[in-house]
Amino acid sequence: MQGVKKQHLPSKTCPICNRPFAWRKKWEKNWDQIIYCGEKCRRSK
């Protein structure tokens, strides 16, 4: 993902808050397993 502008990053929608969230460098290796946008949504599933 090096050299990609922020508006062209992949994104997903959180099933809890229905907000879109974008790819992050720390999620590079497990982007397919990421479901929730953050810790708060993950805990309230």
Structure report:
The chain has 45 residues and is an alpha+beta fold. The chain has one domain (6-43). 11% of the residues lie in helices and 13% in strands. It is built from one helix and two strands; from the N terminus they run ββα. The chain has one helix at residues 39-43; strands at residues 11-13, 20-22. The protein has a two-stranded antiparallel ribbon. The protein is globular. It starts with 10 loop residues before the first strand and ends with a helix. The mean pLDDT is 91.
Intertermini distance? 30 Å
Percentage of helical residues?
10-25%
Strand content: 5-15%
Rounded to the nearest angstrom, the radius of gyration is 11 Å
Number of helices in the DSSP assignment: 1
The averaged pLDDT comes out at: 91
Order of helices and strands: EEH
What is the number of E strands? 2
Which secondary structure elements does this structure contain, and how are they paired or packed?
Layout: E1 11-13, E2 20-22, H1 39-43
